[in-house]
Amino acid sequence: MTQTEIPTFLVELEDAFNRAMISNDIGQISRCVTDDWILVTPEAGPVSRSRILGVIGSGLLSHATMTKVPTHAWVAGDIAWVTGRGQNTGTFNGQPIEADEYITDIYRRVDGEWRCMLTHLTPVHEGQQGGA
């Protein structure tokens, strides 16, 4: 496999993660992530699973749409990563939000199931083109 070949199971994992996030259901989201999942954002830096799920569970943050187009991936034993471009819309603190980001999700196989252990977001800047 080359870095740019995206295994079908990773595309399916990313699609399931997107559906869980727009459901705004912390139970569905929890099934996609490890107990020690970290979300790294440009605004807040590393955010723990409990903190992000708490914000979603409280209704402070909600997602209406979320898409990702994977462009690079790698699988090594029980660890896999996928990077791509993602867009999402929703609300934060009652205000509309939208994002255009490069997203890297790192997955770990736990008890035979792949779960995301780290999500890293990097904003796309105007005029920036994805490379490599």
Automatic annotation (TrEMBL):
A Pfam family that the UniProt record links to this protein: DUF4440
Highest taxon above the source species: Bacteria
Residue span(s) of domain DUF4440: 11-116
InterPro entries: DUF4440, NTF2-like_dom_sf
Stated name of the protein: Nuclear transport factor 2 family protein
Native organism: Lysobacter niastensis
Upper lineage: Bacteria, Pseudomonadati, Pseudomonadota, Gammaproteobacteria, Lysobacterales
